Amino acid sequence: QVQLVESGGGLVQAGGSLRLLCAFSERTFSNYAMGWFRQAPGKEREFVTAISRSGNDIYYADSVKGRFTISRDNAKKKVSLQMNSLKPEDTAVYYCAAGGLNYDLEYSRSYDYWGQGTQVTVSS
Question: Is the pLDDT reported for residue 100 higher than 90?
Fold first, then answer.
């Protein structure tokens, strides 16, 4: 059973940076596209960014484009999310997800496994 474990969340001031990591438990990491989603209080879960199995295709939500960077290390079975120029509206629980499909990665239905989430709080 695939397990995803996120780390790196915390409290940061607006304009600051955080780096989230997601560790994948199985050897089949390179068979999965990876994504990050977030959910703020009282809001639906929303797409943040995704990376294809090979890492050659990357997608970002317009709200984070130019500020966030996703990357993956297939040898270490990890995906990271570098978040710069953070804003208070980035405050949310951030979830890592793994999907067997390599398309439609902006949709949560494309993912088979989810982490427990890590809290990111950006103060103004």
Answer: no
